[in-house]
Amino acid sequence: MTVTERTAPVRKAPKAPRGYLVVGRTVAIPMRRASVFAGAGLFVLLLAAAVTTLAWGRLGIDLADLPAALVGDAEGKDRFVFNRLRGPRLTVAIGVGAALGVSGALFQSVTRNPLGSPDVIGLSAGAGAGAAFCALMFPDTVPVPVGALIGAILAMALVYVSTGTGFRNPARLVIAGIGVAAMGAAVTQYVVYALERDKASVLTAYVNGSLTARSWTDATTVWLVLLVAAPLTALISRRLDIGEMGDDIAEGLGSEPKKAKTLAVVLAIALSAAAVSVSGPIAFIALTAPQIARRLTRGSGPHLLLSALTGGLLLVLADLCSQQLALFDDLPVGIYTMAIGGAYLGYLLVREWRKGVL
Asked: Could you tell me which residues come within 8 angstroms of residue 281 by beta carbon, excluding any fewer than 6 positions away?
């Protein structure tokens, strides 16, 4: 008797395009010449901005004493400034900027829309409302990061349901997100007016996005989420790049765009919620960082690593202005990012309208 054995066809992993550093079967990091030069340039600028933040001003640490402060050997004023004032603030700024940059890049890749960022589609406002509600209404019951995560998930659930098509239609996503963002802002304002005046004044700085008086605990929170999310974003970055060509083509190449998009949305929500929980809803970093990274590399899709570097650089520079501009003493950093990002959002809206996307 002849026995015919049937075996399932072996599904090959999609072949990585040229210009990628491939690690194993699933991780592929863009390593084109433009990406390498842009990454090196952004890292040098971020390093220079970080050193300037620590050394500039009346309380600045002298450059000659900065290495000792970094390794924990500083004493006196330098020790206090680094450990209590500028060190945690700088670490939080870099972490929050990187988290928002990656979150924005993931949303723009999933929606294939330059307007698809946590700011525009209501995620940041929802996370801010959840954090404010839990922190001030139930201060000893629900931790702030958990409140931010709950607010972000509820906001995304509202957007998903109200579009009628999930996250598939970018134009509906933007319109629904604007409405959900307004609802999140309304909840936050309700919390402000429901509390006594002194707590409300503290919350006013929080809802505008501020890095004042941040601690090493805040830095640990955002960097812990970044460390968990980084390898997962690397795992799906190759599939997201292939997905830029469309779901049908991506499936034809052996990729799994639906699973990659689902994980991308989950990671984007977690990163944005972590950032908002320690700094408040800092506007427009998530929108502009991936766009700047894309233009630096002239790539077809958002570059996750460069988006992180760009986000960190933008927020450190904005915080440097917040600390050192004498005309606006310690103005919340979110005001600076809002001023720059608002103009950029207007430019993007006009461009998308002319293209007929909106």
From this structure: 119, 124, 125, 127, 128, 207, 209, 334
Measured CA to CA, the distance from residue 210 to residue 319 in angstroms comes to: 9
Residue type present at position 208: N
Buried b (16+ CB within 10 A) or exposed e, 324-336: eeeeeeebbbbbb
Tally Cβ neighbours within 10 Å of residue 358: 16
The pTM assigned to this predicted structure is 0.80
Under DSSP, the state recorded for 28 is: E
The conformation of residue 209, written as its DSSP 8-state character, comes to -
User: Phi/psi of residue 23, each to 5°?
Assistant: -120, 110
Whose CA is closest to 214, among 280, 272, 284? 280
Measured N-to-C along each axis, helices 87-111 and 216-243 cross at an angle, to the nearest 10 degrees, of 20
At residue 44, φ and ψ (nearest 5 deg) are -65, -45
In the chain, the N- to C-terminal Cα span, in Å, equals: 66
- 174-204 pLDDT, tens digit per residue, is 778 878 887 887 887 777 666 655 565 556 6
Per residue in 143-180, pLDDT tens? Answer: 777 888 888 888 888 888 887 777 666 667 777 887 88
